[in-house]
Amino acid sequence: xxxxxxxxxxxxxxxxxxxxxxxxxxxxxxxxxxxxxxxxxxxxxxxxxxxxxxxxxxxxxxxxxxxxxxxxxxxxxxxxxxxxxxxxxxxxxxxxxxxxxxxxxxxxxxxxxxxxxxxxxxxxxxxxxxxxxxxxxxxxxxxxxxxxxxxxxxxxxxxxxxxxxxxxxx
Length: 170
Hints:
InterPro entries: Hemerythrin-like
Number of strands: 0
Pfam families: Hemerythrin
Protein name: Hemerythrin
Organism: Sphingomonas koreensis
Protein backbone atom coordinates (compact mmCIF):
# COMPACT_ATOMS: atom_id res chain seq x y z
CA UNK A 1 0.00 0.00 0.00
CA UNK A 2 1.27 3.48 -0.84
CA UNK A 3 2.38 5.77 1.98
CA UNK A 4 -0.65 7.54 3.45
CA UNK A 5 -0.50 11.34 3.83
CA UNK A 6 -2.22 11.03 7.22
CA UNK A 7 -0.58 9.40 10.21
CA UNK A 8 -3.80 8.02 11.67
CA UNK A 9 -7.59 8.30 11.77
CA UNK A 10 -7.53 11.40 13.94
CA UNK A 11 -5.27 13.16 11.42
CA UNK A 12 -7.82 12.40 8.68
CA UNK A 13 -10.65 13.90 10.72
CA UNK A 14 -8.61 16.96 11.71
CA UNK A 15 -7.73 17.56 8.05
CA UNK A 16 -11.46 17.47 7.27
CA UNK A 17 -12.05 20.03 10.04
CA UNK A 18 -9.42 22.41 8.60
CA UNK A 19 -10.86 22.05 5.09
CA UNK A 20 -14.39 22.93 6.21
CA UNK A 21 -13.16 25.82 8.35
CA UNK A 22 -11.41 27.19 5.25
CA UNK A 23 -14.58 26.80 3.16
CA UNK A 24 -16.60 28.69 5.77
CA UNK A 25 -14.03 31.52 5.69
CA UNK A 26 -14.26 31.64 1.90
CA UNK A 27 -18.05 31.76 2.13
CA UNK A 28 -17.89 34.75 4.50
CA UNK A 29 -15.72 36.62 1.97
CA UNK A 30 -17.63 35.56 -1.15
CA UNK A 31 -19.41 38.34 -2.97
CA UNK A 32 -21.69 36.84 -5.58
CA UNK A 33 -24.58 34.43 -5.34
CA UNK A 34 -22.92 31.89 -7.64
CA UNK A 35 -19.74 31.82 -5.53
CA UNK A 36 -21.75 31.49 -2.32
CA UNK A 37 -23.86 28.69 -3.76
CA UNK A 38 -20.79 26.76 -4.93
CA UNK A 39 -19.05 27.14 -1.56
CA UNK A 40 -22.20 26.24 0.39
CA UNK A 41 -22.67 23.11 -1.72
CA UNK A 42 -19.03 22.12 -1.12
CA UNK A 43 -19.45 22.70 2.63
CA UNK A 44 -22.57 20.53 2.63
CA UNK A 45 -20.85 17.73 0.71
CA UNK A 46 -17.77 17.77 2.95
CA UNK A 47 -19.91 17.71 6.09
CA UNK A 48 -22.14 14.91 4.81
CA UNK A 49 -19.14 12.72 4.07
CA UNK A 50 -17.36 13.63 7.29
CA UNK A 51 -20.36 12.87 9.48
CA UNK A 52 -20.96 9.60 7.65
CA UNK A 53 -17.42 8.30 8.15
CA UNK A 54 -17.43 9.37 11.78
CA UNK A 55 -20.80 7.77 12.50
CA UNK A 56 -20.25 4.59 10.48
CA UNK A 57 -16.63 3.87 11.44
CA UNK A 58 -14.95 6.20 13.94
CA UNK A 59 -17.52 6.61 16.71
CA UNK A 60 -18.53 2.93 16.86
CA UNK A 61 -14.86 1.95 17.27
CA UNK A 62 -14.74 3.89 20.54
CA UNK A 63 -18.13 3.06 22.06
CA UNK A 64 -17.47 1.78 25.58
CA UNK A 65 -13.80 2.83 25.40
CA UNK A 66 -14.23 6.58 25.94
CA UNK A 67 -16.85 8.73 27.67
CA UNK A 68 -20.10 7.53 26.06
CA UNK A 69 -21.73 10.88 26.85
CA UNK A 70 -19.22 12.53 24.50
CA UNK A 71 -20.18 10.14 21.72
CA UNK A 72 -23.89 10.68 22.35
CA UNK A 73 -23.43 14.46 22.25
CA UNK A 74 -21.46 14.15 19.00
CA UNK A 75 -24.31 12.24 17.34
CA UNK A 76 -26.82 14.88 18.46
CA UNK A 77 -24.54 17.71 17.31
CA UNK A 78 -24.24 15.97 13.94
CA UNK A 79 -28.02 15.81 13.70
CA UNK A 80 -28.34 19.54 14.28
CA UNK A 81 -25.79 20.13 11.53
CA UNK A 82 -27.56 17.68 9.20
CA UNK A 83 -30.82 19.62 9.43
CA UNK A 84 -29.04 22.80 8.36
CA UNK A 85 -26.97 20.98 5.70
CA UNK A 86 -30.13 19.61 4.08
CA UNK A 87 -31.83 23.01 4.21
CA UNK A 88 -28.81 24.84 2.77
CA UNK A 89 -28.28 22.22 0.07
CA UNK A 90 -31.91 22.61 -1.04
CA UNK A 91 -31.78 26.40 -0.97
CA UNK A 92 -30.36 29.29 -2.94
CA UNK A 93 -28.37 32.35 -1.84
CA UNK A 94 -31.39 34.62 -2.42
CA UNK A 95 -33.58 32.62 -0.04
CA UNK A 96 -34.59 34.05 3.32
CA UNK A 97 -32.03 33.24 6.01
CA UNK A 98 -29.65 31.45 3.57
CA UNK A 99 -26.50 33.26 4.74
CA UNK A 100 -27.67 33.08 8.35
CA UNK A 101 -28.10 29.30 8.08
CA UNK A 102 -24.57 28.93 6.73
CA UNK A 103 -23.20 31.11 9.53
CA UNK A 104 -25.10 29.20 12.23
CA UNK A 105 -23.84 25.94 10.73
CA UNK A 106 -20.31 27.35 10.90
CA UNK A 107 -20.75 28.15 14.60
CA UNK A 108 -22.19 24.70 15.32
CA UNK A 109 -19.25 23.06 13.54
CA UNK A 110 -16.72 25.23 15.45
CA UNK A 111 -18.27 24.05 18.72
CA UNK A 112 -18.27 20.41 17.61
CA UNK A 113 -14.65 20.58 16.44
CA UNK A 114 -13.64 22.14 19.76
CA UNK A 115 -15.31 19.28 21.65
CA UNK A 116 -13.47 16.69 19.55
CA UNK A 117 -10.06 18.39 19.48
CA UNK A 118 -9.84 19.77 23.02
CA UNK A 119 -6.46 18.78 24.50
CA UNK A 120 -6.48 16.22 27.32
CA UNK A 121 -10.25 15.78 27.78
CA UNK A 122 -11.60 16.10 24.23
CA UNK A 123 -12.83 13.12 22.26
CA UNK A 124 -9.67 12.71 20.20
CA UNK A 125 -7.46 12.90 23.30
CA UNK A 126 -9.56 10.17 24.91
CA UNK A 127 -9.41 8.08 21.72
CA UNK A 128 -5.60 8.21 21.67
CA UNK A 129 -5.55 6.61 25.14
CA UNK A 130 -7.42 3.48 23.97
CA UNK A 131 -6.17 0.26 22.37
CA UNK A 132 -7.94 1.00 19.06
CA UNK A 133 -5.60 0.75 16.04
CA UNK A 134 -5.78 4.30 14.70
CA UNK A 135 -3.77 3.42 11.58
CA UNK A 136 -6.16 0.63 10.58
CA UNK A 137 -9.04 2.98 11.36
CA UNK A 138 -7.43 5.61 9.12
CA UNK A 139 -7.40 3.15 6.24
CA UNK A 140 -11.07 2.29 6.79
CA UNK A 141 -12.03 5.99 6.96
CA UNK A 142 -10.13 6.81 3.77
CA UNK A 143 -11.61 3.86 1.87
CA UNK A 144 -15.16 4.80 2.87
CA UNK A 145 -14.50 8.46 2.15
CA UNK A 146 -13.35 7.55 -1.37
CA UNK A 147 -16.51 5.47 -1.91
CA UNK A 148 -18.68 8.37 -0.82
CA UNK A 149 -16.80 10.88 -2.99
CA UNK A 150 -17.27 8.60 -6.00
CA UNK A 151 -20.97 8.24 -5.18
CA UNK A 152 -21.28 12.03 -4.87
CA UNK A 153 -19.63 12.52 -8.27
CA UNK A 154 -21.64 9.87 -10.08
CA UNK A 155 -25.13 10.12 -8.64
CA UNK A 156 -25.05 12.35 -5.63
CA UNK A 157 -25.50 11.59 -1.97
CA UNK A 158 -28.96 11.43 -0.41
CA UNK A 159 -29.93 14.07 2.16
CA UNK A 160 -28.12 13.75 5.48
CA UNK A 161 -30.05 11.41 7.76
CA UNK A 162 -30.45 12.44 11.43
CA UNK A 163 -29.93 9.46 13.74
CA UNK A 164 -30.46 10.67 17.30
CA UNK A 165 -33.01 13.43 16.81
CA UNK A 166 -36.46 12.59 15.48
CA UNK A 167 -37.86 15.12 13.08
CA UNK A 168 -41.58 15.59 13.22
CA UNK A 169 -43.37 15.63 9.86
CA UNK A 170 -44.48 19.10 8.77
